[in-house]
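Session log. Operator J.P. requested a structure for one protein chain; no other inputs attached. Running the standard single-chain path with token output.
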Amino acid sequence: MLHVMKPELPDDLAQLWRKGAQAYLDKRLGDGAASDSADVEGVVVTGDAFGAIIGEAVRRRAGLIVIGAPASRGYTDMFVGTTSERVFRFSNTPVLMVRREAAGPYRSILSAFDGSEGSVRALKAAMAIAPKAEFRIVHAWRPPQTSVGDAETARSAIERENENLKPLIHKAATDALSSSEGSLAVDMIEDNPFVALRNQTGSADLLVLGTHSKGRLATTLSIGSLARHLLAEAACDVLVSRP
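Structure written below.
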């Protein structure tokens, strides 16, 4: 459990802050915030929040970073530049953003899956967290813009492509979930991918996303437009993994 102090505090105030923060972490851990059988530790460090989180994850070889959702919700642009968004952009470790109070293990997992390296890695991370969950794989696509005369031809071509694509996606998801004890379903949906996934997050416990690898440039494009919007708008917890 990590708390990051601001580096510009005066020495006397910093000492008081550190002491108070450490006492708070120790109390929360002692009150049963973690399992009695877990190896837990409260850590207080000084620095930039984003850099400290990434640095501690690397130093401790963490398998997962868990963060809370930003205070502001419902506006995608307000999510850009937050500590959470920067952690998602730059972390090589899977990141879980928690929106809801835990009521038990994850049971219903929704995955935006296209068979890419990022989506496979994210699905494997979800399986490690919830091996007995029900996994629903969603592949959504936008209907193409066509003239009236070409609409029927385009639709027939898409249907044929999806018939060929569905077993490939199912196999990739099955391979990623090879150790899972839960169930698996694959849905092919003709709709805006953001709308299709956002509308279904209300009935899911966890949304799983893979992001595109576009370097480490400080741009929101490095996590992809779909991921950025869903991180800001999803109603459930979100797990994200870079390739």
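Operator note: Residues 213-222 have pLDDT under 50 and may be disordered.
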